[in-house]
Amino acid sequence: MKKRTYKFFVTALYVLLLLILVSCTEKTETKTHDENIQTIEAVLQNNLTGPDDELKQILKGEGKLEALGQYEENLYKDYFADETSYQEYISSYGSVLWIEPIRNDYKLEVENIEYEKSDSKEIIYNFSIELQYRKEDSESSEVETVNGQANLNEEHKIEDMLIRIEEPWSTFGS
Fold first, then answer.
1. What is the pLDDT of residues 123-173, one digit of tens each?
2. For 156, left (φ over 0), alpha (ψ -120 to 50), or beta?
3. CA 70 → CA 79, 89, 169, distances in Å?
4. Superkingdom of the source (predicted)?
5. CB proximity list for 40: less than 8 A, separation 6 or greater
6. What number of H helices and E strands is found in the chain?
């Protein structure tokens, strides 16, 4: 009888320990996943919603390059792993994305972003954005899907980001 009680107690303790371990692991993965998504979402929202009045003023004013550099640094730099990854993003996307929309009076707004973590050992997320765009003086708008990928490090900072922006940018010039 004593041996049976002992086996039951050891088995119950083992199951309880296993449940605690699994529970803690899931919370850590969920927290990490959420922090990665928050980083990606902040950059995408900042870069694909607008243009805001501050950016319009900078592009119309004197000393554009210095003001634009500070504007971009305030919006994006904290989300990138290092200076190189930040500069690569800014030179490919950053305010560069706003040239055609501003020139042709378009307003952009991120409607929804879907994320999918890749099966890779690296921290890579694919994303799909529903991007609404309209002429500033128009009531009607259109929605396009923009896809991309973000690679992050353990500190939840972006090492590399790709945004496939062919649509709707080809529309803005026409």
1. 999 999 999 999 988 999 999 999 999 999 999 999 999 999 876 677 776
2. left
3. 15, 15, 25
4. Bacteria
5. 113, 115, 125, 127, 150, 152, 158, 161
6. 6, 4
Please give the C-alpha separations between residue 131 and each of 24, 156, 173, in angstroms, as whole numbers. Answer: 37, 24, 17
* Cα–Cα distance for residue pair 99/122, rounded to 1 Å: 33
125 closest CA partner among 158, 94, 164, 155: 158
pTM reported for the whole predicted model: 0.79
DSSP state of 80: B
Residue tagged 């296993």 (tokens): 18
Angle between helices 83-92 and 64-76 (to 10 degrees): 120
Q: Tell me the Cα Rg of the chain.
A: 23
